[in-house]
Amino acid sequence: xNRLFWILVVVFAVIYLGAKQGEKHNREENERIARIVAELxxxxxxxxxxxxxxxxxxxxxxxxxxIKASNYNKIxxxxxxxxxxxxxxxxxxxxxxxxKQLAAVIKETPESNYEIRxxxxxxxxxxxxxxxxxxxRAAYYRSMYAKQQQKIEADAxxxxxxxxxxxxxxxxxxxxxxxxxxxxxxxxxxxxxxxKCSDASFDGDGWLVGCEYLGKNAFGATVRxxxxxxxxxxxxxxxxxxx
Length: 243
Known about the structure:
It is a single chain. The chain is of the alpha+beta class. It folds into two domains: 53-160, no CATH class; 176-241. The chain has helices at 2-54, 56-68, 72-82, 88-108, 114-127, 132-163, 176-185, and strands at residues 193-197, 201-202, 207-216, 222-232, 235-241. Strands 1, 2, 3, 4 and 5 form a five-stranded antiparallel beta sheet that branches. The termini are far apart.
């Protein structure tokens, strides 16, 4: 027995050390790849800076045409590439185009969409850190979005407490509560075969799922049926036909 015990200890030690060495190797490999990527990005930045300085007039002329055409996406693409040059005029063009782009997003976004407005104003805040109005509005929308998320989370907790967790779709095909219910009311429980079910959604009364299933009727004939099932705490509480 003692011999077997020590053999097992050695085996587990070898497995453990092998796993640790594997982790170390993976970590070192990831660090090596990260260094290579950083070096390549640095080389690209140097090349982009050189190219801009050598072709500044040409690039600025292209940007002037894009500004006239209000093509802010293309302006941002070009200016972001050459920002590494440190050219102030290029940066000013970038900030102006980005500001126009974000202003358009804000204009098209409903006041109630706090997530997008918070994101847009936060980006504007980075572009214009001295602008108190932008700073205040960014803070306001971030606060409203945080409150909105808190309410969503609170509602989700209340929903789970009242109706239970959403049912789990087994093998992407059926739900245990539906299967159990159908077998409990079927003329021939062994004939029940659920073919497919929809994802669960909350409908105010519980978790609603639609399922298509086969089962024998009172005459012994196999019938295909599609129904909607409302599930509460893993029990079917309501059934209605699909049509």
